[in-house]
Amino acid sequence: MTARINAFLQLGRQQGGSDIHFAVGAPPLVRLHGELNPIKYRDLTDSEITELTHEILTPVQIELFEAGNDLDFSYENEEVGRFRVNMFHKVTGIGASFRAIAPKIPTFDDLGLPPVIEKFLHSTQGLILVTGATGTGKSTTLAAMIDWLNRNRRFNIITLEDPIEYVHKSKQSLVIQRAVGTHVSSFTEGLRSALREDPDIILVGELRDTDTISMAMTAAETGHLVLGTLHTTSAVKTLDRIIDAMPTEQKMLTKSFLSQHLNAVISQKLVRTADGRYRKAILEIMINTPAIGNLIMTNKIFQIPSIIQTSVDMGMQLLDQSLLEAVQKKEVDPDNAYLHATDKKLFQRFVTNPELLPQVNLAVT
Question: What are residue 162's phi and psi, to 5 degrees?
Fold first, then answer.
């Protein structure tokens, strides 16, 4: 019997939506190019959402959810494809978010990623971080990186994900994918286990706590290439987050690790394209150099943006630099770019909607 929720998921995917949301008191909502749009349907009740979602849950998942736990899992169906799902409880009842996973793992060219990303993957040791707010395409960028390694290197690649989004079939490499909560109890335990499984590459879906960050650093320090994500929006904020997560007595060791073993930080946002039909990844890229390593060790992380800004020839770029280039090439919507920019003055002359600009008081006092 076909799950009834498939009809909404199929409609959302056909419209080009990135996410489909189910919430009490509203019709199903589709996120199109960053904005939520209602599907023409009645407002959903708590019991309706329960019935729709229970058709795709296992008995164990139903028991966990009814006990008050959130659920993170993957849902795949021949008719509608693959989705990453989060189910949760809120004041008015339950809710669910379905993130559409592309049927084909995108390449660097598909995503418009700069060539320097490929260069990072020639390293055999160290830590590469892909960061950004929720829903900015971190998992997709990492999937493209793993796919490139899978097609071009003979490695043992172990991924730890919550949940598994893109499914990789082993090509040149052996790819072992493990889901937190299903195959391992936590990212930390998964990392401990992975280090006993002769890995070359370890992907950590999220460096969400001190123990996971510590284990990832140990793996990178002991001869492995570790890829991971953080919910930070710039290279500087990423470094600060990692250092702040550590106990006081470990902060100096953490700075030493970062100065020596952090390879690169890629921070990304998704900005609406000029035609309004898609969203383009805009990247800030920091490559660890002796100069940046020295700033980390001497507590001058705040000076790093200056080095990034003047190191374009090495492949580095600030988010605003990448954003400005995309605006000048007419690849992204200038109004949306203005909203995402850090230094908004750089983008004011491109804005087409005057209401976005700060109001100037011309009254004479």
Answer: -145, 90
Helix (H, G, I), strand (E, B) or coil at 172: coil
H or E element in which residue 83 lies: strand 81-90
Angle at 76 between CA 72 and CA 77, to 5 degrees: 145
Cα 338 to chain centroid distance, Å, stands at 22
Let me know: does 293 contact 359? Beta carbons within 8 Å.
Answer: no
52-68, pLDDT tens digit by residue? 999 999 999 999 999 99
Structure tokens at 56: 């795709």
Collapsing DSSP to helix, strand or coil, 176 comes out as strand
pLDDT band at 89 (very low <50, low <70, confident <90, very high): very high
pLDDT tens for residues 17-31?
A: 999 999 999 999 999
Q: CB-based contacts of 252: which residues, under 8 Å, 6+ apart?
A: none
pLDDT tens digit sequence for 177-229? 999 988 999 999 999 999 999 999 999 999 999 999 999 999 999 999 999 99
Closest CA to 201 of 254, 133, 148: 148
The DSSP secondary structure of 6-54, one letter per residue, reads HHHHHHHHHTT-SEEEEEBTS--EEEETTEEEE-SSPPBPHHHHHHHHH
